[in-house]
Each structure stands twice: as C-alpha cells, then as structure tokens.
Design goal:
This protein is of the alpha/beta class. It has 17 helices and 13 strands. The chain is elongated and about 75 Å long. It binds adenosine-5'-triphosphate and magnesium ion.
Length: about 400
C-alpha cells in the first residue's frame, strides 16, 4: 500500500493525469516523485482513464492539451467520470486558452514549462477549493433504511438492488452501508471482495471526514460505493453507536443517498440509524408470522417516537398466491403498502451469480419494481405538505 501522507503528515493530493502536451513527460517524471502528490496514473485519452477517474477518490485531475482553445469535449468527458477540480496544462503558445478558461469549469491553467513547485501548489490549491466547495454545497444525503424483524424476507436483496438502481439509473451518489454487522452479505450479493470493511473504518485512528470515508469504501461497477459489514461476527461490537452516528453524518455530506441494510434486531447502532433515517422501508410478506412481527415493529417504532410518515411498507413476493391479499396486510398493519416487489426467479439466480437482478436482468418484473421504488424515493412529498396547510383548522 502507498503511504497517503507526505513527510509533514499532510494528506498527499491524489491526482490523475489525462491528455498530452509539450513538456508533459518531464512534468510527469517530477510529479511522480513529489512527496505532496500521489500521481495515480496517466492516460492520453480520457476514455482510457474512466475507471481511475470515477473510482480514484481524486483531489484533482490534470488535463494536458495541445489545443489552442478550450478542449470542451475532453473536459465534458472528464466530468462524466469525476467531480474533482480540473487543472489544465498547455504548452507555451496556447495563450488564447487562458481567456476561454476564465468562464469554464476549470480550477487553473498552467502553461508549460513550469517549476514543479508551481504545479504542485496549483494542484493543492485546486483540491483545497474543491473540498471547500463540496462542504459549502452541503450535500445533505437521504438515509434510506431497509428493515424487517424477520430473517430471510429480502432485506439484503432489496437494499443491494435499490442502491444499485439509485447509482446506475438515477445518477445518485449512493453509499450502501451493511449494518447486518454479524452476518452481512451485501458485498457477496454484489459480487465484490472489498479489502476494507466498516470495522477498519471505525477502528482507524483520527477524526472521520469525507476524504477519509472515501478511502474505506469499495466502488461497484455500477457506480455504487459499498461499506461492508465486518468479516468476523465477533467484531460487530466494535461498531458503536457513537462511531456510527459520526459515520452517518459524514456520509450525508458526501452522498445523495445512503442505503442501509440491517439485521432483524433493534440494537444500538440500529437505533442510532433510525434516529437519522429519512425513509424506512419496512419489508413485509404475505405470511402471518411476518405480518405479526412487522406489526410489533411498528408499535416499537411508535414507542421510539419514530415519525410514522417516514415508514414505507414494502410488500415483497407480492404476487405469491398464498391465500392472503394486500388489503389484509394493510388492515393488519394499519399502514398502506407503498411499494410491491414480485417474487421472481431472476432474484435467486442473480444472488448466486453475485450480480444484482436490477443490473443483470434489467427487464424482469422484480427489476421494474426496484426501479419504480428508486424513482419514488428521495422526492420531497409536496402533496403532503400542501394537504397539511389545507387541513389547518379554520374559524368561521
Ligand atoms: N422478490 C423475490 N423473489 C424471489 N426471491 C426472493 C425475493 N426476495 C428475496 N428472495 C430470496 O430470498 C432469499 C433471502 O433474501 P435476503 O437475503 O435478501 O433476506 P434478508 O431479509 O436479508 O435475510 P437476513 O435476515 O438473513 O439478512 C434470497 O436468497 C433471495 O433469493
Ligand atoms: Mg440480509
């Protein structure tokens, strides 16, 4: 593993280099050895660098151009994969580019040759400004928690598919957090083998911030970031309520959506998560024991003062012909069913292949249900707000 800090203990700025211009080989060479820069790689074409740009947790992108004017196509291609600030490099003749760049979404333009220290300063300044802009933007991610008090009802299937759909089809920056701390299998269902888990994150020294969080997540090919459960069940207790609270606060700053998979218990970290949950997907099935336990959970949630309008009942395997109807579930729970997911053979097949159905079998009924759910979540309920105004008591 590379050391992420320079000799002064400062975080090295991660940089990816794209494009080409005169003087670039020399700069590449000196940047590669510079203690304050972590040069992740170089590809002349932006497309070849897509993976590193998207998953590289970059502080800045350096793009070298031979064009005398602004390389709009390349900049757009970079923006498709990365939100990191872009520093343009050009050779000495490209002076007209400087004018154009004033209005463009670029952090800086440097005409080569330059002293390496000038380039490093521009990189650090751009990365710093980028971090501040992200903090100011105050991304306020929504926390969507998937829960059911019974095991095997489809929590992990729902959480992994929903998170993949939000990332891939809704273009949301999405984190999947596996809070089934003892026996979490979200990573397996996604077919990834992460090197780090939530345990590494909570036992790491120092304060957690968005940059640090980025260093512990694993990127799935669909664009989703994943923070898996600890590898060994006995390590679950290391994830304390306090650590989890901080983790969720930081995740809200970096993501649009945080999807949380859970275990069938109201343990400490789960209560801390409920405290911050915006939408609780409460899974139910068409069987009496599950309905009974979901009903008990709703009562517990009431005792915990969890706002009942944040509960979304999801009926999984809704098409199963087992002598019970949706309306009976709604009557027993005293809650409307908000989403339905059909029982679908594609689901267990996809689970065993380690590739969520919504990605591998996009056309199947289950995947359609998941995509509807992804669209229906995270939207402010304007209708509701209006109704509340209308129902205010009026005096004659
Ligand atoms: N809609 C569905 N159609 C077909 N199979 C399903 C569906 N939902 C869940 N399953 C199957 O049920 C199994 C259990 O689902 P899952 O692991 O998601 O449940 P869980 O609630 O996370 O269980 P646990 O409480 O053990 O974590 C999965 O292997 C999956 O194949
Ligand atoms: Mg599960």
């Amino acid at each position: 593993m590379t050391d992420h800090h320079d000799t002064n203990g400062r975080e090295r700025t991660r940089v990816y280099l794209t494009g080409w211009c005169d003087g670039l080989p020399e700069l590449h060479e000196t940047l590669g050895r510079h203690p304050e820069v972590d040069l992740v790689g170089h590809s002349e074409s932006v497309a070849d660098g897509a993976g590193a740009l998207a998953g590289g947790h970059l502080g800045a992108v350096l793009h070298a151009t031979r064009s005398a004017s602004l390389p709009n196509d390349e900049l757009a291609a970079i923006r498709e994969h990365s939100h990191a600030p872009v520093v343009l490099l050009a050779s000495g003749e490209a002076t007209s580019l400087l004018e154009d760049a004033l209005d463009a979404d670029v952090a800086d333009v440097l005409l080569l040759p330059q002293l390496t220290e000038n380039v490093v300063f521009a990189i650090r300044k751009a990365a710093h400004a980028g971090r501040r802009a992200a903090a100011r933007q105050g991304r306020d991610g929504r926390i969507v928690t998937v829960f059911c008090p019974k095991g095997g009802t489809g929590k992990t299937v729902t959480a992994t598919n929903l998170a993949s759909a939000l990332a891939k089809y809704q273009g949301k920056r999405t984190l999947l957090l596996d809070l089934d701390l003892q026996f979490g299998d979200a990573a397996i269902m996604l077919g990834i083998e992460p090197e780090q888990t939530i345990q590494d994150l909570v036992t790491a020294p120092g304060e957690l911030d968005p940059d640090k969080l980025a260093g512990y997540t694993t990127r799935h090919a669909c664009g989703l970031d994943v923070l898996p459960a600890p590898v060994r069940p006995e390590d679950a207790e290391l994830v304390t309520e306090q650590k989890l609270t901080r983790l969720l606060e930081v995740a809200k700053q970096s993501y649009d959506a945080i999807v949380v998979d859970t275990s069938p218990f109201f343990h400490g970290p789960m209560l801390a998560t409920l405290d911050r949950t915006d939408e609780l997907l409460l899974l139910c099935g068409l069987d009496v024991p599950t309905i009974k336990n979901v009903r008990l959970s709703i009562q517990t949630l009431e005792l915990l003062s969890f706002p009942s309008e944040r509960i979304r009942v999801v009926l999984n395997r809704a098409n199963s012909n087992v002598g019970m109807k949706r309306s009976e579930v709604e009557a027993a729970l005293e809650h409307k069913v908000r989403f339905e997911l059909p029982s679908d053979r594609a689901v267990p097949l996809a689970v065993n292949r380690g590739n969520p159905a919504v990605l591998s079998e996009a056309g199947c009924d289950f995947s359609r249900g998941i995509r509807d759910m992804a669209k229906g979540l995270l939207v402010p309920e304007q209708g509701k707000a209006k109704k509340r105004w209308l129902s205010l008591p009026t005096r004659a």
